[in-house]
Specification:
heterodimer; A: alpha+beta; Four Helix Bundle (Hemerythrin (Met), subunit A); SH3 type barrels; B: mainly alpha; flat
Chain lengths: ~260, ~110
Amino acid sequence: MDIPYTVQARPDTGVYNAKVGMWLFLASEVMLFGGLFSAYILLRVAAPPGTWPHGWLSVPLGTLNTLLLALSAVTTLLAWAACKARLFDRYKLFQAVTLVLALVFLGIKGYEYRDKLLHYEIALKDGRIADGHLVESRPEAVVLHGRYVASHAELMDGRHPGAHEEIRIERAQIQRMENYGPAHNTFTAIYFTLTGLHGLHLIGGILVFAYLWGPGSAMWHTDPERFTNRVEVSGLFWHFVDLVWIFLFPVLYLT
Amino acid sequence: MTEPLNPEAFRAYARRCGLVFLAVACMTLLMVAASYVPLHNHALTIAIILSVACVNASLVAGYLMHLISEQKMIYTLLAFTGIFFAGLMGLSVFAAHDVPALLHQTVTR
């Protein structure tokens, strides 16, 4: 059985079915991310003054990732345009570049996650707080590359962290030890939720692109129009992923 | 765009895409620069940064997703999405009326 309107536009909608389907899917995605952005707004507005962190994320890395994703959005569009121009080798090239850029984005995001998961805040029994990145963990002591602060409030502004040094802390002195993972506070919780969901979308896009670049590209030789439409709808999804990041970056990294 | 492209049209299209990328890159750097400007008004800084982000998003949606030349069906679908999204954000605004009570809570951490 043939699926209707995979290539030709449906007379009543003016577009082929997969495109309508993708836009409907993206509409539901808008509501999904909209709900999470709404949660972010409520958490942030409700945070008592001085308790919402600033400067905890690396702006240079976030900027680089924004540029990488924007460039990948352009290359995926050029991959589709190459299909329209019947330049299959160019399609392969641009789609491969898109895949590489997407993987680099994920790699940088993974590095940022690792940085947060190795960043510890340790409350000592004498009331001081040690904050820094874990260098070594032994049964009797832990070693951080960081600093001591007198109160938790001092940690909220990460833009001027001050001098860091290697600190050795005996386990017996530790009252509480916690990394900057999702359970650390509301900021890290919403940060990991939003960027994690965005990352899952990226992985989904990468899988589709990899299929269309590899085994799925066999369709080019039998039904190039339909293949071009597949590239177009996967590109629409990718642009949406880029759009989400365009708002995630300023909201999480810059404000 | 439903018609096939000839190689010359492809090159012109690639140039246009390159310009869109440059514009997005410039807007991104503008956002970063704005975040470092000491305006002493955090709300204004956020408003400026998010305004630039909206321009960035418009470029991506308009040119890369071809929304400047889409079919009426897609616009209709997006109009409904916009209405529901506005409603969702409206709920956030209405819920903000509960916030003053939260603001007076003791900071425990």
